[in-house]
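Chain X:
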Amino acid sequence: MNVRSQIAMMFHLDKCIGCHTCSIACKNIWTDREGTEYMWFNNVETKPGTGYPSKWEDQSKYKGGWEKKGKGIRLKSTGKGRIIPNIFHNPSLPSMDEYYEPWTYDYQNLFNAPAGDDQPTARPISMVTGKHIDVESGPNWDDDLGGSPLYAENDPNLDGLTEQQKRQLFAVQQLVFFYLPRICNHCLNPACVAACPSGAIYKRGEDGIVLIDQNRCRAWRSCIAACPYKKTYFNWSTGKSEKCLLCYPRVETGQAPACFHSCVGRIRYLGVLLYDADRIEEVASLPREKLIEGQRSLILDPTSPIVIEAAQRAGMQDSIIEAAQASPVYKFVKIWKLALPPHLEFRTMPMLFYVPPLSPVIAADKNDKLNSVSDDLFHDVNESRIPLQFLGNLLGAGQPGKVAYSLRKQKAVRWYRRALTVGDVETETVDKMLREAECTREEAEEIYRLTSLCTANERFVIPPAYREQAIEELQDPMECKKETGFGFITGPRRGT
């Protein structure tokens, strides 16, 4: 057992209000330089929708992530025998059309325009060419389904839905949607790290954060094609790739990342997970239907004496183990099984998890009138406007059953709290709901409190950094124990 620590994230989609405060906080801190105009390390998408860059989930187009090959896995986008033919051209890279041409406005025209009968306007100007352009897309062009129905109808997650389900979904497309905030997943099996020919991208052993060494980056851009979530970007001004770094300078000083700290809906949780690094390839190679439980089995119980002993033997500090024991992410992912990873079929083992959203009941068309009334206080999850198959494609590796389990447990907690606060639900009904959701009253109370009444210290359990010790071990790898808890025996830049 090779125990490592990983800072992991969890977003509660039932609480996201789509305000984009997280995106702006990140933009103002990290991507306000020349060449980063189009970069959104954090962005919030409307689902159903094609997202940013457009249709990033369609790996038949972008060829990101890993694919099962025999008993193992291999990168879809590149490899030893495939990198040379594409040295000057990578057909899987998103184009500017898939992102958008960043623009500003000719504000000076508001002041310098000659006198006339009409009010002067500030025309959009390309931040790439400096010329006037007609704006045709943007990072949240389909926000609230505002772009056009074409965005929602081209969502790759609609695969497998029946025509009836699609009609039900789009008949009320102005009313039913949810928000999907996205950042780098800081995966356990990152395709971007494996694809980089120059070794510029690396995963920090002490906390699992994936970073890009700007001194070693040689603009191959293999990382952009390999990342199935398209969260690595190319800076056209510096000739280097950049990505979300989970605000590691903040995390190292005990502060939550900017997007977490600024979140209005308090949907974001951060904590430590302990995992067995020796089993990553084994789990990533599992059949698609076994990936979710496989990833859960990869996450270790931080209270187990065996795990604690193995972690200490690997050089892990007790304070990191204690942080893992208090991790809210561990509870949502491993204990309660409420949170699920996005598109685990990409086999990168993402360390960002989502609690799927509940949605209103389907609006049935009866005699040309929409009827969205349910006989139940809280309708069954199978009657939701957002089909389970859609959520299953997004968060369940194609398995709606995993999503249904999470939604039923959330529904049971609502029934439980309704019975306590309003008193119009019978005790037998509540107990039945909890049993069906495999949830006790004590667990329901804990889920409710960590979801609704949690403080910042409960949502963000940030471990001590021990950065100096990690750097020291990287500089002198020969004196490190082979099973070092900081992971890398030789660092991305040895001796620096």
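Chain Y:
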Amino acid sequence: MAKKDKYQRLTYDVFDTDMGWVAIVGSDHGIVRASLPEDTPETALDYVQPEVNTAEHAPAEYVDARALISAYCAGEPIDLADIPIDTRSATPFFRKAWDACRTIPAGETRSYGWLAEQAGNIKAARGAGQAMARNRLALLVPCHRVISSSGALHGFGGAGLPLKSRLLAMETDR
């Protein structure tokens, strides 16, 4: 099956949260792409390219996901792993890394080495780093919880390390 055939129908929503605008695009199998909180709806939509280009705006389909993401961004102790994701177009290693990342409890961190081991290749810490760098499911795959083995914070999309630090602090303070 060709990559573009995997998503027969795509829909999207963009909404304001306490942390900024979030855009999500989904298929019948779950969310395929999500933005980090951004300053404007346009910027959030830019981060869910190219899928949003062929998606239909259907906010009614995302009432539950919007409520959970909004509550999370308001600092409530919400587990976003309850929101289904669709990772069928990702490599098997990336899928395993993203699934493992979703098991990291809020307020806790794990290393790229731990993530690689959970994804089935203990020697693939750099590959785990690439899975996090190419994470297209921001917040739903909480890559902000993955840090270096030294405990240092490393690259993060959107607003960068200040947002990564803010998300971790918000989760720790709950």
